[in-house]
User: Fold Oxidation resistance protein 1 from Corethron hystrix.
Amino acid sequence: RRRKSVGIFLPSLSSDLEKLNASKDVEPSTKVDDYPREDDDEVGKDSTTEKAHQRKSLHQIRNASIISQGFEISWLADIGTRPEMDTLQPHVNRCLSHDDLDALKDNPVPLLQKRSFDSEIIRDPVSFDPWDDQEDMLILGTSADDTEALPHVLSPPLMESLQQFLPFALTEDNYYLKFSLVRDGSSLHAMLDKVRTSSHCILALETSDGEVFGAFTSTKWKIQHGYFGNGEAFLWSMRRSRLIPCGSLEEEVQREGEIDVFPFTGENYMVQFCNSNKLGLGGGSLLLDSNESSFGLAIDDDLLHGTSGSSSTFGNRPLSKSKGVKEPFEIVNLEVWTLTPCMDEQSADQLEFFLDFREKNTISSQ
Assistant:
């Protein structure tokens, strides 16, 4: 598959990298093609090697030191030629959005992300069911044959698209379905119980109009007073409704991967909200002369209805295109997925419980 993500960009970072690459003080970096290859003499068999070189470059980026104060960038490793820099640009962008709200309070301007509201996933033609393509993706908590959780809201192509916008440390993690409305019941309290130890969550819902949208959050969902959360959160939506007919399976798979992403803007800190009656994300009006404020996404405690409006927290348009800001949409299924580095459900649960226990005891000891 070939991916091109243009949903998030940092023009200032791009220009800084160009200056850095052209600096006389920096020695010419090694090109990707300069690395030795085992199959240089064989034509048409270099795709595996190219993938390995890209992975090597992505590991190099982990050694880069990015200093937000003054927007100074210091590289401790070569990142290759200009074409390779274009490939690594999305990963660098995600590194810059890894700061939480506390780090952004003093001077958030250098780290604020600009949005084009566009994202494009270019895929090779396929002739198989999306849920059968799991060679490169381990999915925990459900499967294509899990009749209790059908129909799924997230599909593998949609999961792959969302991975491009996750914090860099999570891009290789596996998806784990912790809650499904059709499987676990329509209750906010049931949902909160299922995800009580999960820090990183992807909320995904499908409406009766076939629209699919949701949010990514990096703070545990729980009932508490006021807003909480951090700057890694974002809202997202599929561009096209699933009720719109597709001419082929290939077109259906392509539709699943086309999404719009709305990252944290830094305009306010109204990221997550949860009480016994409602779950919400985002807030604040986009209009300077307006006193009206709406959630970017709000879901009732029965998980069957919700609303979506524009918010300055994420700079988003209403996620539901078929309903107005004050008009509720009907939810046919809602899922909450967590992300885990583990390869099985038991290990994933044990890791979450351990991290949750350590966090609570660290807080209590302070």
Q: What stands out?
A: The chain has two domains: 8-115, 130-353. The first helix runs from residue 11 to 22. The CA atoms of residues 203 and 360 lie 24 Å apart. The first strand starts at residue 8 and ends at 9.
